[in-house]
Structure formats: C-alpha cells, structure tokens
C-alpha cells in the first residue's frame, strides 16, 4: 500500500458545502481544480442535493475528509460505517480519504473533535485503528494535524506525537497550516519551527482556513472567516520548504458568495504559481 494516493488531485481546491452547491453547479468555475466533502454528510443523499452532488463529482476530482470516525476514541471502530464510506468512495470514483487525528465519541457522539493524549500508548492505539480502516477501505488514508485547546496527560510534544503516528502507521498527512498557526498562538510555540519539522514527503494535500480571535492568546478554529496574512505566509513557507502541494480552502460558517470564495482560491493559485516558477528557476 502506498503512503500517498497516486490519484490525488492537484492545484487549488474548495470545500463543497450544501449552501454553495447550487451556484457552483450552475457556474462550475474553472478556478477550482478539485473539491472536498465530509462523506458522512453526503452518503445516501438523494433528491435535489443528490443529483447536484453527482453532477459535481462528474465535473471535478474529489477528495474526502471525515468528521466522525473517532480515530482516537475508546470505542471500537464502527466497521459498518467504514464500509459505507468505502461504498461512497467507490460509487464516486474517489481515492483520497483523510480524518482528524482526534476523537469524537465515547459511548455516544460528542459532537466535537477532542484532543488525543500525546502519549506512546495513544500512538499505538491510533496506529492499529488506522491500519484497520485502511484494510476495510482498501485504500491508504491520511490524518490531519488538528487544533486543540488542552493536552491532558501529555508525555510527548505535539510534533513528536504527530510524527510518531505518521511513521508507525505509515500513512499520509493532510497538513492544515491554519491549525499550526492556531496552536502556535494558543500553546506558545513557533509556527515556522513546527512546520520545519513536518515530514514533507508524507503531505498528501493542504488545508487553509480562517479562525476567530477570542482573546490575544486564544484563537478558536472556526473556519468561519477569511484566511489571514500570517496563515497565507505560512502556506507560502510550506511551498518553499516542501514544494507546491495541492491546497484546499475550507469555509464552514459565515459562508460568503462564490465570487468571494474564488478570490481566496485565487490567492492559493497565485502562491502556487509563484513558488512553482521559483522552483523551476532553481532546478
């Protein structure tokens, strides 16, 4: 099994939400190279949204990013749920599946992404579950570095924990640069130093998003605002360090017009083109 799916879409992408599927279906903007959905929000969806979604998967390459697998949770992996994801991926010809390096259930759904303790025991627990999911999906899967607001029982640093999971599970990384920035402010570390320690060969694709400043030293990862300059700068540094990678804009709340979303997708494309040119000149 390969670490990175050879069929990962390239370029600049946008997270597809039901609030924008209507205008996107009508316009099918050429500025968007690929799209992403949480599969559990679209599995077995019929009617108007089902037809629109099928039209979009026929028009664009897609990746998927799950919300409720609960990789770090104490309860057994929901095998039937994973099988339904596999069926969804097969039906729509999607090869890339990623999930959050977190948990969201314990004898019931918690409706939030909770931090996994940064311990060697947790590494072993998560790695076994990643292997189980990959075996069912018959695909490699990726994990996303997450934002977190507390680190209960911490024995390792965040970067040590992330790298250990990636290495031992031999899986790919969905690198969220906004989450690096959010955590760097909330936990007082240097974002660039964290980024430099990322194993770049494991990056499948990248997320950028906006957030909410609750206080001077507290940022909430909302995906409900425009991407700010420091996050764009961190994305640019990511390209400089690791080369241009597929990158997707997330927007979950306070969703603006498609035209405004495309402006931010355009920034991704501009940064990618600039770094691609720079790489060609130094090659």
Task: Furnish the topology, listing elements before pairings.
Layout: E1 12-15, H1 18-27, E2 34-37, H2 47-59, E3 62-65, H3 79-92, E4 97-100, E5 103-105, E6 109-114, H4 120-137, E7 141-144, H5 158-169, E8 172-176, H6 177-187, H7 191-196, E9 203-208, E10 212-215, E11 218-220, H8 229-242, E12 247-249, H9 258-282
Parallel strand pairs: 1-2, 1-12, 2-3, 3-4, 4-7, 7-8, 8-9, 9-12
Antiparallel strand pairs: 5-6, 10-11
Helix pairs in contact: 1-2, 4-5, 8-9
Walk me through the structure:
The protein has 283 residues and is α/β, with parallel strands linked by helices. Helices cover 43% and strands 18% of the residues. α1 (18-27) packs across α2. The longest helix has 25 residues, at 258-282. The chain is built from nine helices and twelve strands. The chain has one domain: TIM Barrel, CATH 3.20.20.150. The chain is globular.
A few lines on this structure:
The chain is an alpha/beta fold and 283 residues long. The protein has helices at 18-27, 47-59, 79-92, 120-137, 158-169, 177-187, 191-196, 229-242, 258-282, and strands at 12-15, 34-37, 62-65, 97-100, 103-105, 109-114, 141-144, 172-176, 203-208, 212-215, 218-220, 247-249.
CATH domain topology: TIM Barrel
Mean pLDDT: 90
Helix share bin: 40-55%
* Domains, number: 1
